[in-house]
Each structure stands twice: as structure tokens, then as C-alpha cells.
Design brief:
Largest sheet: 8 strands, antiparallel
Oligomer: single chain
Helix content: under 10%
Amino acid sequence: MHTPHRALAWLIFASFVGGAGACAGRKDAPSSSTGGAGAASGGGGGSGPPSGGKAGATSVAGTAGTDTSGASNGGGAEPTGGRASAGQPSSGASNGATTNGGGAPTPSDGGAGALAGAGGAPASPVGLSWPVDCIPNETCVNLGYPDTDGDGRAHDCGEPGYQGHEGTDIGITFEARDRGTAVRAAADGVVQFAFDGKYDQCPNVNEPDCQDPGGFEAGATKGTTVCTPVGDFCGTGQPGCFWCFAGGNVIVIRHQGVPGVFATRYDHLKKSSLLVKPGDSVKRGQKIAEAASAGNSTGPHLHFEVWGTGFYELADPWAGPCGPNEGPSLWAYDPPWSG
């Protein structure tokens, strides 16, 4: 049994108006930037193997904050993201849900599913495919479900990875990490961001790549955290934002034609395992990396995060009565790993 750890996620929001600067504060005591301070990034939590941590949430312009949340048995700690923008308000979008359960590997009734094509042949699936080579209750250690609406309940009304959990943690064993567990693109798309080179067996008090970066800055790669440059990363592609991810080795893939999905994010990847770079086109099921424990993580797992309507606008891929969406699922199959 693994004892849950407390997870701390930082979000700093800054606006770039003719200069540098940042404002930071606690979520329960927001501060604002005026006259050109910027804002920008988030950090992620930690938890034991396999226990989950958390990703940073988006914020209204000029505010910043931290959340503390517990981690349950999800498979490590999670990433987090933050943003710098041109001072426009941004709110997280939750447009997704899912269905979880057993059953035969057939298309999900409530989800995207896979439809039969001409002559009864299956067409390409619609929705997200399972992003890692393990099966829950068999070769995955366990799951930490999202809580993108922050109400402390997962889609099925059970416990999420922790309150405010922004992705799905899929835990694997240390042995599976050492053997190599493939992380796969959940749908066709184009790689937006890809970061490699971080130590991948966190936590380690003597390893700089496992430590809190102490701040966020466009283009920086310090401690657990990697940051994008400032670019067209606000909303659906407006200029003036950068994002920081506490997943160490991270991939973000943009998608088109996947209902309810703008992008997917893959964190805590094994060092030197990334097989893609920004601008690469990828196909559903293509191996893009391997799972490990880079960044703000305390056990090997994949943190899989879905952005629904724009950059860091979160969506829950699992559908259920207590999720932000009651359906349909964003997964292509029910259960997701059956496709």
C-alpha cells in the first residue's frame, strides 16, 4: 500500500504589456499585475508510486495562486502548466467526460466509438485512444482520475487522483519503466511542444531536475519544469503566452477533427526516449516516448491531460454523473484500453 502524499501546484499568471514582470500570489489571496507585469506558469504535485500529483490550472488575467491537494493511488505526480498572456482573461474549459468500465472491446455507446465503414469494415475510431501500453488491473498499477471542476469527485462520483487533479495518472511498475513502456499518440495530430533531457527517476533530493524551480520564465528549463517561449499560445492561438510544465520530459500534441479535443499532453517521460519533435505529424497509436518519473513525480507513470477548447483549457475525457460532462466520453472505446 502506498500512502498518499500532499501535492502542491503553483500557477503564476503574467501579462506582457511592453515589458517583463510577473505577479504571483495564493489562490485564496490573489494579486494582480498592473502597468505591464506578466504572468505565466504552473507547477505540479507529487505522490508516491503509484500516486498522483496535480497540474496547474488556468487563471483569470492578473491573478495567481497555489493549490494544495492530496494525491491518491494514481501513479506518480503530475505536471502542471501555467501561462503568460496579453492580459486577457482566460478560463478553463471542461468539455469532456468518459465512461469507465469493463466489457468487450466494442465501441462505446456513450462515447465517440468506432463506426463501421463500407462493407462492415471498421472506420477510423473517433475520440481518444489509450495512450500507454498497459491495461488497468493487469499491467497498469492503477489510475488517478481527473477532477477538472475541482469538486473533489471523479466522473464516477468516486475519489479522483486528488482534488483539482487535471489529468489522468496511469501508474506503472518500476520494472515496467526499466523494460520500457511505450507512450502512444491518442489521436492523429501535430506535435506542438516536446521537451527531453531531464532526469527521469524522481524524486531524488540530490538531483537538480527533481527540485522546484523557484520561479517561471519563458524558455527556461529549470528543476522539474520546462517552459515554452512566448508565442501564439493563448486560447486557440493568440499571441503573447508561454506555458511551463512540471512534467520534466513533456510532449503536447495538437489535434483536429477529434470532437471536444484541442490537444493532449504527456508528462514524466523517460529521458532520451522521445521520438518526435515540434512540427512532426503523428498518427493514432504511434509510439512517441516511454513512461518514467521525470519532473514533479514520485513514481513511474504517465500523466495524460486533455485540453478541450484551447491551450490549457482542460477537459475530462471520462464521462459520468459527477464529472463536468455527463457524456459523451472523449474516449474512442469503452473501456478506453480495449481498442
